[in-house]
Write a structure and sequence with these properties.
- The chain is mainly alpha-helical.
- The protein has one domain.
- Helix content is about 85%, strand content about 0%.
- It contains eight helices and no strands.
- The longest helix is centred in the C-terminal third of the chain and has 59 residues, at about 180-235.
- It is globular, with a radius of gyration of 24 Å.
- The two termini are about 25 Å apart.
- The model is unreliable at about 235-240, about 295-300 and about 300-305 (pLDDT under 50).
């Protein structure tokens, strides 16, 4: 348990590093702006489509036809979003390395990280995606056969896998190693430090999960309220107003909901960003010190950071 207590020292060090390197937030703020614009443009596009259709007269076939006719656009947006996210992640990991193992951030660190690690991170994510596609049906079947108890076990396994992936990428960036060398190093690290690392992950999930769930419930609540109000409006007032009037009212409601959803996305993303940066720095600090309980040399011969 003594190694678990070191986590709080690492949190303290990560806090000071975070405070002294606020430029680490700039790429993520830009990414949040991009995400908000995607939501805003997508919402406006769907809203404009609804203007040419009677919202309450839509059936499953019309919605399905709309999705199919825009499938290529949706795929292009999704792929672009993923590539931008991987570029952001690769640049940020290099910035984390500069903050924890170096003397702080300098101009051009983010782009340098993107150039060095983008394709390696892309390959890692492809390997993870392929593994997930293979494992998910087996895990789902296991959960069904065990009367849903297996889903808890599967959830724990995926949480451990997420921890492993984090240190896989950390090892790759810190040591400038290849993908498979970093893979072996991350396995070795987790064997030695499994319990304290899991403890860090649990704390992170507890903090960030609250903000994610609250934003999700808020989003769902806005949509559900809109649907319920709209349906009640339709059923109760159809006999008093014509469909054109109802559709105009729907568009007015949507013009309010779209910016609300966009703003709530920005706010929740900013909250999650703060937690993500702090705990990512904490993982880098933990990897640096290797959870040593004595005054031993850090990984790769780096000196302790005095805070």
């Amino acid at each position: 348990m003594q190694r678990v207590y070191l986590i709080f020292d690492y949190f303290k060090e990560a806090f000071h590093i975070n405070r002294n390197n606020k430029r680490i937030y700039l790429p993520q703020i830009l990414f949040i702006v991009i995400k908000a614009l995607i939501i805003l443009v997508g919402s406006i596009y769907v809203s404009n489509w609804l203007k040419t259709n009677s919202f309450y007269m839509l059936n499953e076939k019309e919605v399905f036809d709309f999705l199919i006719s825009n499938l290529v656009n949706f795929l292009l947006i999704g792929i672009t979003y993923l590539l931008v996210f991987i570029a952001l992640e690769s640049g940020l990991y290099y910035m984390y390395k500069a903050c924890v193992f170096g003397k702080g951030l300098v101009k051009g660190d983010f782009l340098k990280g993107v150039k060095k690690y983008f394709f390696k991170f892309l390959l890692i994510n492809l390997l993870i995606a392929i593994s997930t596609v293979i494992i998910f049906p087996i895990a789902f079947l296991f959960g069904i056969l065990t009367l849903f108890v297996g889903f808890i076990i599967v959830g724990i396994i995926f949480m451990i896998a997420d921890i492993f992936v984090n240190f896989w990428k950390i090892s790759l960036v810190v040591n400038d190693s290849g993908i498979f060398t970093a893979f072996k190093d991350s396995i070795s690290f987790l064997k030695r430090c499994f319990l304290p690392v899991v403890f860090i992950q649990i704390i992170y999930l507890a903090f960030s999960g609250i903000s994610r769930l609250s934003s999700s419930f808020s989003f769902r609540s806005n949509i559900d309220d809109f649907i319920n109000i709209s349906r009640n409006f339709n059923h109760n007032l159809m006999s008093y107003f014509n469909i054109d009037f109802i559709n105009r009212m729907i568009r007015i409601v949507m013009s309010v909901i779209i910016p609300v959803i966009t703003i709530s996305t920005i706010v929740s993303s900013l909250i999650v960003m703060v937690f993500k940066v702090f705990f990512s720095l904490s993982l880098f600090v933990a990897y640096k010190h290797n959870f040593n309980t004595g005054n031993t040399t850090n990984r790769e011969g780096y000196n302790d950071v005095v805070v």
